[in-house]
Design a protein that fits this description.
The radius of gyration is 22 Å and the shape is elongated. Helix 2 (37-46) packs across helix 3. The protein has helices at 6-27, 37-46, 68-77, 89-99, 138-148, 164-173, 189-195, 210-217, 231-234, 249-260, 263-274, 276-279, 282-297; strands at residues 32-35, 54-57, 83-86, 104-106, 125-129, 154-158, 180-184, 198-201, 222-225, 242-244. The model has no long low-confidence stretch (mean pLDDT 93). The protein contains 13 helices and ten strands. The protein is an alpha/beta fold and 298 residues long.
Amino acid sequence: FQNKGEFKKIIAEIETFWKLRRLLKREKPDAVLSFMEKYNVFVILATRGLGLKVFISDRSNPKSAIPKHIDILRKLSYRYATGIIAQTSLAKEIIKRTTKNKNITVIPNPVKYVQRYPEIKRENIILNVGRLVPEKGQAYLLEAFKMLNNPKWRLIILGDGPLKNDLLGKAKQLQIDKQLIMPGAVSNVDEWLARASVFVLSSVSEGFPNSLLEAMAAGLPCVSFDCDAGPRDIIRNGVNGILVQTKNIQELADKINILINNPQLRSSMGKEAEKINEKLGISNVANAYIELFKRMIN
């Protein structure tokens, strides 16, 4: 779509619609797979009357607000999809309730390959990775870190965003600024995962937290807010990670404290977390899609 003014954008969308429809008529694919709400609607409409099997997947937080016209079109069009892929169990429930489509399958995101650094020793580092925006909840993490009152540990927050100065100011106010490092967005996240000893996901809202997946893949014990979508589908509480009531700062501090004071628990939980590499490896997730297509097409 060419976004050169609203009128040209509409014309480009119409042209793209017919180009896509002609392409699909010519190629006659076994299956059509689309991602994201707006494009899912677009693809469903473009394939109407062509007799094609259309699979769609929403990728954002199922509770997030979407433009009103997209929401209306979504409710009207999703019932015509051959199958819908949801990232989480919560997403499945909400999609089923709002679209009336019953052919919904949960397939999580795959975990990307995480580089391991056996030569790097783990340090007394609590790590958080994410954009510095309200949804990622780093302000709650700062307060929980203050409650630890442990000068031997540092808090590293990787990522950039509009709240950076606010978070730095809050850290100074809490008198933990000397233990806090915020290097911004970095390209060597895997090295930080190798250096850290605990990972904390402080998000109050998620679609599917890839940063949590990657931390687990790196063998880190993880503490996460049990926010509306994602963590409870990944973490088996007390086995391969710890879930905490969202925004409960005291509980977050207590659970982090248990981990930093128990190296053996960190090790055993990290080994369980590492098994996510097999469960949600790219091949396994890809095969889940292919098996879904085969089952629904035949």
